[in-house]
Design a protein that fits this description.
The structure holds 2 protein chains of 2 kinds.
Chain A lengths: L6 E11 L3 H9 L1 H9 L4 E8 L6 E8 L9 E12 L3 E10 L2 E14 L4 E11 L6 H20 L1
Antiparallel strand pairs in A: 1-7, 2-3, 3-4, 4-5, 5-6, 6-7
Helix pairs in contact in A: 1-2
Chain B lengths: L7 H8 L2 H11 L3 E2 H8 L3 H13 L3 E6 L2 E6 L2 H13 L2 H13 L7
Antiparallel strand pairs in B: 1-3, 2-3
The chains are: A alpha+beta, B alpha+beta.
Chain lengths: ~160, ~110
């Protein structure tokens, strides 16, 4: 049997923010705010970011990485379609990511907001299928995460 | 005193050794003389000096001779290199959620 050309992965990341869910939701729904945390970063040059925040609406991000990275200068595009939106509770989007003109992954990203005494717990579940040749930052990072975990165990001795 | 550029490689190599990690942990509590370091480690003074040299070369430790006593203390340079390396390796979404946290922490967000 040939090795599978698709690799699946699920990543769950949790964060607590000292602000109510309404405030966090605004940062997910307002294009100017979302651009700042989602699209812009120290090492990336944003070429395009637009979002139509409603079920069926499209969000498109096009950027390039700067600095000392393996995929420096290559255009990275992610295009998502909002699948479900419940105000102050959740946003679900299905997206694809491309490196240059090669599609490297398809993902379902679910963001849930849970009210707490001190603010909001955010749970992000990222379910992806990585395609062949997806030698992109995600794959590299996954490998490095394993290394780091091992390092943490090593350092804990 | 470090020879050449401090890279994450060198810091990881330095901290990959359990004795050197023990030294770093010990110094974290405060400056210690080299001879005092050697006693609980149960190794020779020469071995301690060699370990300290490695740690000093990658910016984790600084030693200083005052009178006849050589004292070592923690230095932050090496740790900054590690911090940067770890930051660079965080996944795209982790970085995004960090930035979301910064945005939510801004005072004008409260209006």
């Amino acid at each position: 049997m040939q090795p599978s050309s698709v690799i699946h992965s699920t990543i769950v990341i949790e964060r607590s923010y000292p602000k109510p869910p309404e405030r966090v939701f605004t940062a997910l729904a307002d294009p100017a705010k979302k651009r700042r945390w989602f699209a812009e970063g120290e090492n990336q040059e944003v070429d395009e970011f637009e979002m139509d925040f409603r079920v069926g609406g499209i969000e498109r991000l096009r950027y390039r990485l700067k600095g000392d990275v393996p995929v420096k200068g290559i255009v990275i595009t992610s295009e998502a379609r909002y699948q479900d939106i419940v105000s102050n509770q959740r946003v679900v989007a299905a997206s694809t990511t491309s490196l240059g003109d090669q599609r490297i992954s398809a993902s379902l990203v679910t963001i849930e907001l849970l009210p707490t005494e001190n603010g909001t717990d955010l749970i992000l579940t990222h379910q992806s299928a990585f395609f062949e040749g997806a030698d992109g930052p995600q794959r590299r990072e996954a490998g490095l995460h394993k290394l780091l975990d091992r390092l943490a165990i090593e350092l804990a001795h | 005193m470090s020879r050449g550029k401090i890279t994450a490689d060198r810091v990881f190599h330095a901290l990959g050794d359990p004795t050197r990690r023990t030294i770093v942990e010990r110094i974290t509590e405060g400056p210690v003389s080299v001879s005092a370091l050697a006693i609980p480690l149960n190794i020779t003074l020469t071995a301690v000096v060699q370990h300290l040299q490695v740690l000093e070369d990658c910016g984790l430790v600084q030693t200083e001779k005052i009178g006849r006593v050589r004292t070592c203390r923690l230095k932050t340079t090496g740790f900054s290199v590690l911090e940067q390396w770890i930051r660079d390796r965080r996944s795209t979404w982790e970085r995004r959620l960090d930035r979301l946290g910064s945005l939510l922490a801004e005072p004008d967000e409260d209006q």
